Amino acid sequence: MKKPKQTQLNPNWAQLQQKLKLNGSKASKTSQDSDEDTPKSILGKRKERPGDESNDCQINPLVPVNDDSSLTDAVAMDCEMVGVGQGNKSALGRVTLVNNWGNVIYDEFVRPMERVVDFRTKISGIRPRDLKKAKEFWTAQKKVAELIKGRILVGHALCNDLKALLLSHPKKDIRDTSEYQPFLKSSSRRALRHLAAEHLGVKIQTGEHCPIEDARAAMLLYQRNKKEWEKSIKDQYRFKQKQKKRKQKKKQKNEDASNASHAAIGS
Q1: Cα-based angle 209, 226, 188 (whole degrees, multiple of 5)
Q2: Cβ neighbours of residue 204 under 8 Å, at least 6 residues apart?
């Protein structure tokens, strides 16, 4: 019995089959090698390696994780100043407030009461056109006062911002990153950009300052140290209360002794 004649493949088809088989083999090997060589994170995604190009796409911790712009129990504030008078006197040019998550709840350019002679653009980022339709100082001041009343106020060197706004805030409700003990270096205050780089791993203030970014950095520094920070505030309060009670007892003791002495003399 004759064997059936084998069908002759078209040379082009045979060549294509061979090429597909070869490519499939390579793809399988590449995939296997990649799975073996690439470590996985907890989420099963590829971990970044030092020097990897994708490091440029790292998530910025200052970017809010949601779009909730509600008013929270703690708010962070940052102000930018312009020069008035002879140029060496600072006046409010912009004020920004963000909530717990870093979302903006107030951000306005402010027209100073005195004529601006130096916009300090290289630092403030403020230009003449920004103040043409800016808020009047008293309007901005009133709004900020309403927003911070009864809330924890976070920021860096807040005394300067409050001074520019002609406002005050209870000391017990201020969380100033320039004064928090663990952030100090040899009892000296440090710039916000240095704290952000060291504790948050982000670069800020590399050119013109962005008050939104600065307020977010201050808020994140507070949030990441909130537990210890609030504990230190409570400990300070308790210590002051004890000192106050001791002084009152001592004063009362001296008064009692004085009264007893007067009574003895009178008798």
Answers
A1: 55
A2: 62, 192, 193, 196, 210, 213, 214, 217
What pLDDT does 266 receive? 65
Give pLDDT tens digits for 239-255: 777 787 778 877 877 87
Return the DSSP state at 198. I
User: Distances from the Cα of 185 to the Cαs of 9, 181, 214, 230, in angstroms?
Assistant: 80, 9, 20, 20
Separation of alpha carbons 208 and 123, rounded Å:
5
Q: Report how far residue 93's alpha carbon sits from residue 110's, in angstroms, rounded to the nearest whole number.
A: 5
Point out the residues of the chain with pLDDT beneath 70.
1-57, 264, 266-267
The C-alpha atoms of residue 118 and residue 127 are separated, in whole angstroms, by: 10
In this structure, what DSSP letter does residue 66 have? S
- Residue pair 210/78 in contact (Cβ under 8 Å)? The answer is no
- The closest alpha carbon to 220, from 94, 140, 100, 129, belongs to 100
Q: Which residue has the tokens 């809010």?
A: 64
Q: CA dist 230 to 76, 82, 124, 173, 236, Å?
A: 16, 34, 32, 10, 10
